[in-house]
């Protein structure tokens, strides 16, 4: 959703064990490839979706690279996947935080992969030759069919399929592109037999759910509003929505050069940590740059 064409972009709310990947001493000499890249004057261009959670992760990537001596150019808040993927393929952008399941389904609507490992393996095969998936994180921020706790209790809802027993019409709200996504209303009908009307609610999806103008909301699982607004993501036992882990997508030309910097970041980013990052942004109103700097320092990656 938001990211699949996401924008809104999106986690962004947010992500610890990891191997030390470098000195936090700002005066330390950059190592081999990093100093060569810096000396060559070719900046690594890092992009992000128009989604606060995604921007935070992109900023973490950017600052981690800078800490190792790379020159970095930021191109954040680009918009939907349809808009930024061509820039990734052309090499205009060289590093981008993505979401494994949504990206795989964007590239291959007929994929049968569902588990995190299977989705990642299928994604590495589906990517264009000039793009490389670096190590994925355990952190997830995927689409969900979410209802209010009161609505769930009233109708005895636990899974998406339970919606089929609720007298309609029921309306699903989410970003405009959700209407045509495999996990949108058509998918809910095919997989669970649930009839849903659709309303393009965009950035006001949760507010519309709370106001009762929609019955079901497409909310990302790392959104702090799930807890603060007492919302209930419905279980998806049939795998309508693919597992979607945070995964860095890099231009193949620079993938080997930056992997030693970015892979430890992925190793340190956890599901709980991602939510915490999102809370700092959406609730505490801290900037992506400030959040990233603190997170890298806390994890020995700054």
Automatic annotation (TrEMBL):
Any single GO molecular-function term of the entry would be: transmembrane transporter activity
Q: Does the keyword Signal apply?
A: yes
Q: Which UniProt keywords apply?
A: Signal
Top-level taxonomic group:
Bacteria
GO cellular component term, pick one: ATP-binding cassette (ABC) transporter complex
Domain ABC-type glycine betaine transport system substrate-binding, which positions? 43-297
The record ties this protein, via InterPro entries, to: ABC_Gly_betaine_transp_sub-bd (IPR007210)
What CDD domains does the record tag this protein with? Answer: PBP2_ProX_like (cd13606)
Q: Residue ranges of region Disordered?
A: 166-185
Signal peptide residues are 1-19
Do you know which Pfam families this protein is assigned to? OpuAC
Entry protein name: ABC transporter substrate-binding protein
Q: Which organism is it from?
A: Microbacterium paludicola
């Amino acid at each position: 959703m938001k990211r699949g064409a996401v924008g809104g972009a999106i986690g962004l709310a947010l992500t610890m064990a990891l191997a030390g990947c470098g000195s936090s001493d700002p005066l330390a000499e950059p190592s081999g490839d990093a100093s060569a890249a810096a000396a060559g004057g070719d900046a690594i261009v890092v992009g992000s979706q128009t989604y606060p959670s995604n921007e935070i992760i992109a900023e973490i990537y950017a600052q981690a690279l800078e800490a190792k001596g790379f020159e970095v150019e930021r191109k954040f808040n680009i918009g939907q996947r349809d808009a930024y993927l061509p820039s990734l393929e052309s090499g205009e952008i060289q590093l981008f935080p993505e979401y494994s399941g949504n990206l795989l389904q964007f590239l291959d609507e007929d994929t049968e992969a569902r588990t995190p490992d299977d989705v990642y393996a299928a994604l590495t095969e589906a990517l264009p030759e000039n793009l490389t998936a670096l190590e994925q994180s355990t952190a997830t921020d995927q689409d969900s069919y979410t209802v209010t706790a009161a609505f769930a209790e009233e109708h005895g809802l636990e899974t998406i399929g339970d919606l089929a027993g609720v007298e309609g019409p029921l309306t699903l709200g989410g970003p405009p592109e959700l209407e045509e996504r495999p996990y949108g209303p058509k998918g809910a009908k095919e997989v669970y037999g649930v009839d849903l009307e659709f309303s393009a609610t965009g950035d006001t999806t949760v507010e519309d759910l709370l106001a009762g103008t929609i019955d079901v909301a497409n909310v990302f699982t790392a959104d702090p509003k799930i807890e603060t607004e007492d919302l209930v993501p419905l279980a998806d036992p049939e795998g309508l929505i693919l597992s979607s882990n945070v995964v860095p997508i890099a231009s193949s030309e620079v993938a080997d050069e930056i992997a030693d910097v970015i892979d430890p970041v992925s190793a340190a980013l956890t599901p709980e940590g991602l939510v915490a990052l999102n809370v700092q942004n959406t609730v505490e109103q801290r900037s992506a740059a400030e959040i990233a700097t603190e997170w890298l320092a806390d994890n020995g990656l700054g």
